[in-house]
Amino acid sequence: MSLSRSPSPVPGGWSSPGLNLSNSGRSSPAKMSFAGPNGGPVTWESARLKSQGVNGYPSFATHNQGFFTRHMRRISSSLPTFNMGADDKYAEKDKPGPSRWNPPLLGRLRAITARMGRKWKIRALIAALVLACYLLFYITPMWYHWRRAGWLGGGEKFVIILAANVGGGVMEWKGAREWAIERDSVRNKRKYVAKWGYDLEIVDMSTKKRYAHEWRESWEKVDSIRNSFRKYPKAEWIWWLDLNTFIMEPTYSLQRHIFNDLQKHIYRDINEYNPLNISHPLTSPYLDPDSLSAEGDGDVNSVNLILPQDCSGFNLGSFFIRRSDWTDRLLDIWWDPVAYEQKHMEWEHKEQDALEQLYTTQPWIRSHTAFIPQRLINSFPTGACSDNGNDTRIHYNENDRDFVVNMAGCEWGRDCWGEMYNFRELSIHLNRNPWERFKEDFLAVIWFKLTGQKLEWLK
Amino acid sequence: MHYAYPSRKSSNPPPYLPRSSRFPRLRRSQLRTIALFGLAIIGLIWLFSGDSKHHSRRTISGKPRAVVVTVFSDATDNTAYMKNIRENRLQYAEKHGYGTLLAKASDYDLQGAPASWSKVVAMRHAITKYPDCKYIWYLDEDALIMNPRLKVEDNVMSTSKLEEIMLKDLPVVPPDSIIKTFSHLKGSDVDLILTQDKGGLATSSFVIRNGEWAQFFLDTWFDPLYRSYNFQKAETHALEHIVQWHPTILSKLAIVPQRTINAYATNQHGEQYKDGDIAVVFPYCSELGRQNCAKDAERFSQQWRTSFNNA
After folding, report:
1. B219:A299 CB<8 A
2. Considering only CA atoms, which of A180, A164, A204, A200 is closest in space to residue A420?
């Protein structure tokens, strides 16, 4: 560092910009930086010590002072050696090919293991394994791929379709609350999907001109499901979710929650819970035994549609449908102009009523449809289906840690965003980690009892 | 001999074979263990990965190969005309080991729909009665099987024959339906064979391949909302409707030349019967009264009996 004139100690740093080091602005000269003889920063104190030390002992010992001095040789010898060689090799730098630095890494590792005793070898192996597992499962996204892979976790077999923008577009204007609902709902499903390796398809259900013209509004479900099967060729099950749903327990995987033991969780005989009073099984004498049976063929693999039932019948706010030829046929005949022409005045719930109609009249649909207790995938808040008070088959109960809550019908006279917010907070509260529980349920309570004050930072 | 010292070792070390690689070579026995271990791992993966594909519930063994279905209207019950037709079906079925389902229209509860709908239920009934049959051939009561040598599975439904005769890219409902039969349909994918006459799709004679699709198709066709819709030609127009609106049905449909299974006695409504055709149909004969059908059938009655006796 060359200066045009000698530096002077002005409070607030050296006048020379080149010497303005990190601690400029300090007023104490004792702490002021100073360029030492090597150009490095020196403080006044160390400079004073140094000058004092001229007559005494050197200010540092050269022997056995610390770890590094003691092990310097060993460490430095095990460091990679660089070929600092001739300048005429510069040209090679950009050349692809074998690196010039080729440490005998394997050889050195062998030497180290050879020096180790058997006991230490085993210990080192265990430590390495633990470290490797930690790295693999918590640092790398391997757990995601593990859960996703079809032959391991099987996450790629599930696709969640989330109906966003319901009725928006032509029909109504979206306000801040609607946006908030959509944002929270989407974020909730995104997180869930990222955790378990599923796929999420957000479909825009805003009323389209196409359907408005054909009177087919709310049958878009069919097109969305069909498109998703096409888009995710590995998907086996599609889980349809309405916008006003919230996954309360993201730690439940669909496999563990339902599909690993499907037979146990579904029922095919609608008489088990039959709010629509559909007579089941069919009795027409010309039908085959499977169609006449209450349980279909009884094989769990022949179930292609899994529906929950609320207090007034099928609920299509949350249901599963499986990729199969059967499903293609159902999606194909779900909307039919002749049926629609005759029934559209009665079908208040449009595609839901159409499906009920199909289930009631067509044996081939009945034998492949199963039902799932509503609270497994579609719990209602107390506001929905409230005519007969709280129903343990229908309504959410936080003590049972229900999987999903569906704020069905909240857009008619209830506060969607309020419900969504409350359930979101409840979900966060229920799924706190042990440290948070310790803080909030133990420390904060004790503190409150001792001082009578609530601790904000513990919240 | 005795020496004071043992003989001196050579200062030159004995020549060892140089090592071929840095790692000790695998021995044969080790190789076997490794191979077994690898196999076991692959086996485990195979075991646990499983095959999650949904297989069809039941395989259809094909006994009998085909079933002939005919529904008699209540008006013809127990007449000589009906007995003639009945005998015709039974003889044909016996000849090839086919099953038969000869039902009366009043056997089925149609909930007020026209009696012609009973053919759809009867087909469904045939599936129940012969769950292992391969093909089901519906032939109207006003029709006679003329050529006993022709088999349903060989001369109509065999893949190669179908691919040869099916009419591709043909408007489903002539003359100007924008829905046309598939132009790249494999014979093995065909589950339903229909014909067209001058009025559109004809349902006096058609063949279905038994299976889940057949159940779906018949149930859909028999939907109460179609029955209550008052289609002008009842089930025939309902069929035209579902074929045009639902691609899962259209994609299994092949339309074949009319004389393949549905030759008419006269050329007034469609193609006329020629000797050697499998069957002859007397279309719309009952519109002028049932005795008119018997008169039409008279011409062919002797003929089918002689051809059956000769075959």
Report:
1. no
2. A180
pLDDT in tens, A289-319: 889 998 888 889 999 999 999 988 999 999 9
What is the number of alpha carbons within 13 Å of residue A298 lying toward its C-beta?
Answer: 4
Q: Compute the residue count for chain B.
A: 311
For residue B47, tell me if it sits in a domain: no
Q: What is the token pair recorded at A279? A: 């007579």
CB contact under 8 A, B128 and A329: no
**3-state SS class at A255:** helix
> Residue B76, by phi and psi: left (phi above 0), alpha (psi -120 to 50) or beta?
alpha
Domains identified in chain B, total number = 1
Which residue in this structure is represented by tokens 């089941």? Answer: A280
Burial class (CB in 10 A: 0-12, 13-18, 19+), A19: middle
Mean pLDDT within A365-387: 91
Nearest CA to B83 out of B245, B252, B288, B301 is that of: B301
Cα of B33 vs its chain's centroid, Å: 52
Is B28 among the domain residues?
no
Measured between alpha carbons, how far is residue A317 from residues A173, A209, A351, A415, B260 in Å? Answer: 22, 23, 11, 18, 50
Residues B1-11 have a mean pLDDT of: 74
Residues of A in contact with B51 (CB under 8 A): none
* Structure token digits, residue A355: 């499906």
Q: How far apart are CA A378 and CA A385, in angstroms?
A: 13
- Other Cβ atoms less than 10 A from the Cβ of B95: the count is 14
Say what the pLDDT of residue A320 is: 96
User: In angstroms, what CA-CA distances link B188 with A48, A102, A287, B159?
Assistant: 99, 63, 26, 6
Range of the domain at B212: 66-310
Q: By the CB < 8 Å criterion, does B220 face chain A? A: yes
Distance from CA of B125 to the nearest CA of A (A): 5
What is the band of A215 on the pLDDT scale with cuts at 50, 70, 90? low
Q: How far is A148 from chain B (nearest CA, A)?
A: 13
- Enter the ipTM: 0.81
Report the pLDDT value the prediction gives residue B233, as an integer from 0 to 100: 87
Question: Pick from A244, A239, A241, A242: which is nearest to A180 by CA?
Answer: A244
**Residue B59 located in a structural domain:** no
Contact in structure between B213 and A325 (CB atoms under 8 Å) = yes
Query: What band does B26 get if pLDDT is binned at 50, 70 and 90?
Result: low
SS3 B115: helix
* Alpha-carbon span A186 to A181, nearest angstrom: 8
CA B193/CA B125 separation, integer angstroms: 19
Using the beta-carbon criterion (under 8 Å), do B246 and A332 form an inter-chain contact? yes
Mean predicted confidence (pLDDT) in A30-49: 53
Answer yes or no: are the C-beta atoms of A363 and A282 closer than 8 Å: yes
Query: Quick one: DSSP state of residue B134?
Result: S
Residues of A in contact with B127 (CB under 8 A): 288
CATH number of residue B297's parent domain: 3.90.550.10
Structure tokens at B151: 């088999």
B292 inside 8 A of chain A by CB:
no
| Mean model confidence pLDDT for chain A | 80
Report if residue B279 sits inside a domain. yes
Which range, A358-372, B20-34, B54-68, B153-167, is most confident? A358-372
Q: Which residues pair with B70 in a beta bridge?
A: B102
Show which residues on chain A lie within 8 Å of chain B, measured between beta carbons.
106, 150-151, 157, 236, 284, 286-291, 297, 299, 301-302, 304, 322, 324-326, 328-329, 332-333, 336-339, 342-343, 357, 361-365
The pLDDT confidence band at residue B209, using thresholds 50, 70 and 90, is very high
The pTM (predicted TM-score) of the whole model is 0.76
Partners of residue A354 in chain B, C-beta under 8 Å = none
Chain B residues whose CB is inside 8 A of the A328 CB are 248
Nearest to B248 among A290, A299, A332 (CB): A332
